[in-house]
Amino acid sequence: MFLLPCSALALLLLTFLALEPPPRRPSPSNPAFCRFQREFLLGYLPALAADWLQGPLLFQLLHSRGFLRSQIAALYSCGFASNVTFGLVSGVFVDRLGRKKSCVLSLGLCSVSCLLQLSRDFLALAAGRVLAGLGTSLLFSAFESWYIHEHLERHDFPAEWIPNTFSRVALWNSGLAMAAGLVAELVAEGLALGPVAPFLVAVPFLALSGIFAGKNWDENYGKSRPCGKACGEGLRGLLSDPRVLLLGLVQALVESILLIFAFLWTPVLEPHGIPLGIAFSGFMAASAVGSALFRRGVTGRLRLQPLQLLPSSVLLLGLALLVLALPLYPPCDFLAVLVLQLSCGIYFPAMAFLRRRMERGGDAAGGARWLRMPLGLGVSLVLPALPGDPMGTRGVFGAAALAALVALGAAGGVLGTTRGDEGLKVGDEGLLEGDTGE
Fold first, then answer.
1. C-alpha torsion angle, residues 333, 335, 338, 340 (rounded to 10)
2. Please, is 294 exposed, middle or buried when counting C-beta atoms within 10 Å of its C-beta (0-12, 13-18, 19+)?
3. Per residue in 82-93, pLDDT tens?
4. How does 20-57 read in b/e, with b if 16+ C-beta sit within 10 Å?
5. 3-state percent helix, strand, coil for the chain, nearest multiple of 5
6. How far apart are CA 414 and CA 353, in angstroms?
7. Which is nearest to 60 in space by CA: 274, 226, 353, 301?
8. pTM here?
9. Which of 88, 371, 367 shows the shortest CA–CA distance to 234?
10. How far apart are CA 390 and CA 412, in angstroms?
11. Where are the alpha helices (DSSP H) in 325-424?
């Protein structure tokens, strides 16, 4: 079972390199822009590397502390609940506090969370998961908001150059995610430092990112909006447009399924003797291949549309969950997880494209958070009660497959209600990478 993930990782990396199209547009040669972009990447990429390092061995770490599976589930729930709850108001919080301060704060919260993993006390670990949820929510909102404001308002660079930066971020992020699993495996198993080691390795990256941003970035702020008004706008946008409601339902259901998967993948694969760090790198490689397939499908000869690829990705997700629900030969579990991750690689850019296009008529992202929060909180409450035996886990995947079927119906509804909307299609100019940024 060691050769299977290694072979899969190598094959997926080769597939990704074969599929990934070369850049269609030359990079801007403006020296001031290149310097500004480099400063952003130097501040952001170490934070992304640190975030990925915390993913592969979290379950194994908590299990090594002697906690029961239900207790581990409760710790996961603390992180999920804080993330989805704070996500509803994170945009308003970042705008008020200041985007640079929010970036540094997110790094501080994640650093404290990593250090708390050294503790064997349940409450300390629960506090660490809550801080990780808050820090991650800020990480994926404050940095992008800071960059866009600086790019447009302070430096007055053309908006057409923004996709160049975020396409670089996406490419680096894929590489860092794949490398994180290998590094985690190396320090935990190769160097015999234990599953807490990747969390400690993440701390210098977080510190580097915080120090660089604190010294080199300027502060900027967004519009000061009452929290209730901002949340109300998202809710009104959700209820006023059935397309936004259906899209938000798809997003909420799929993300809830992925929350459950984030908890279950380790206890499913670890008994088979699969090295978790290498498996994690394989997952990230599969996701990168899915993203490359999305770009090829949209920009290649087939001229597929994100409206078509969204239901296809959800169908693929449901099939992978169905395989995980069946007691098949052990390698089938690993291969099913790879298919699940490949479906995510197609799903996320398709969802991002449609969400950004719908935002032009309303706050689709804010509306999706209203659906994401109750489902995410529901998952957090149910997670500790999930059965811990293998057959019970299979049943959970079966229930997740049914949820994916509901999401597939909603995705089909999005396709049916927006079929003639040219604004939700990729035009003759091709796919704009900024439309598919997360």
1. -60
2. buried
3. 998 888 788 889
4. beeeeeeebeeeebeebbebbbebbbbbbbbbbbbbbb
5. 80, 0, 20
6. 13
7. 274
8. 0.91
9. 367
10. 33
11. 330-359, 364-382, 390-417
